[in-house]
Design a protein that fits this description.
Helix 3 runs antiparallel to helix 4, helix 3 runs parallel beside helix 5 and helix 4 crosses helix 5. The N and C termini lie far apart (about 40 Å). About 45% of the residues lie in helices and about 20% in strands. It has 6 helices and 7 strands. With about 180 residues, the chain is an alpha+beta fold. Strand 2 and strand 3 form a beta hairpin. The strands form 3 sheets. It has a 3-stranded mixed beta sheet, with no helix packed on it. Strands 4-5 form a two-stranded antiparallel sheet.
């Protein structure tokens, strides 16, 4: 597994909701698995890309990796997935507020290092409330990425038509040409 910790975000799929964006810090490229969260520098790349104002450190990396593993278990339907995400959520809470601008909510954490992972787990709850059937893994058998299907009819299959969709079409074409 390779670390990908240059200053720019090297992931092939970005811009997904926070929970899925955290899952997508692991991807396969050219047959090799890459992990953006292999070190604190990669965590810093993800935190910046996610718009999270936090300095990467060892504790934040450890808790974020734990949250990613819990989310992956939940999304993949593992027996302990729900309990693992619930355990991540147990390290924070939402406090209702009232300010001059009106009512609001502020997340609070027992340990600030847990914030990125907790926020991703909280975002997963929002996705489950609004579009549980639209949380999908890429249909390409070698792809590790997940996405929220925002297509009108809900039939998106690939993380990216240019990457995995094209690979699948090319494979089918090759198989048909070999048969004839």
């Amino acid at each position: 597994m390779r670390s990908a910790t240059t200053g720019a975000d090297p992931r092939p799929l970005t811009g997904e909701p926070l929970a899925l964006d955290l899952l997508n810090t692991r991807w396969r490229q050219d047959g090799e698995v890459h992990d953006l969260l292999a070190d604190e520098a990669g965590l810093g790349v993800w935190l910046r890309a996610a718009g999270l104002d936090r300095t990467p450190d060892a504790a934040t990396l450890r808790h974020t990796l734990s949250a990613r593993d819990a989310l992956l278990a939940a999304v993949d339907g593992a027996d302990d997935g729900v309990a693992r995400v619930d355990a991540v959520l147990g390290h924070g809470r939402i406090r209702a507020t009232l300010t001059a601008a009106g009512p609001g909510e502020v997340p609070e954490f027992e340990d600030p290092a847990r914030a990125p992972g907790w926020l991703a787990a909280r975002n997963y709850l929002e996705l489950l409330r609004t579009a549980p059937d639209r949380i999908r893994p890429c249909a390409h058998e070698a792809c590790l990425l997940h996405f929220l299907d925002t297509s009108r009819n809900g039939t998106r299959r690939w993380c990216s038509m240019a990457l995995c969709g094209n690979r699948a079409k090319a494979s089918r074409h090759y198989a048909r040409s070999r048969e004839s």
